[in-house]
Amino acid sequence: MRALYPLITLNHTYINMQEPGNIETLTASISNLISIHYELLKLEATERSSDIGSSLVSQLIIGLLGFLLVFFLSLFAGFWFSARMNDSYSGFAIVSGFYFLLFLLCILFRKKIIIEPVRENLIKKIFPSIK
Predict the structure, then answer these.
(1) What is the pTM of this model?
(2) Which pLDDT value is given to residue 8?
(3) How far apart are CA 36 and CA 44, in angstroms?
(4) Which residues contact 80 (CB under 8 A, 6 or more apart)?
(5) Number of other residues whose CB lies within 10 A of the CB of residue 91
(6) Positions in the chain whose pLDDT score sits under 70
């Protein structure tokens, strides 16, 4: 009985499946292909994880600098309002009230301004082919 598909194309050369030496060549080629594919997957995973890690570190540094800026501007605003009102507590109460309103807005709109952008950014970093 004759095989239905006696020839397999591999790298534009034809291998006759009925010859025993060619089966070992085919097995070695497939094993080599799997090994190369595995190495490619490792390299892609390393690239994506290093991209995510570097983005995380840069965002942490920017966040820290932003925090320090807001902290010192808040102290300045608290002292400035206190000097204008001739009271040492009122300026800091005004600044605290501003941050309380900002906190409430973040709670109310957290899905739109925090959760969705972070999720989208992370998905773009992990799967760069998805737009």
Answers:
(1) 0.63
(2) 46
(3) 12
(4) 91
(5) 20
(6) 1-20, 131
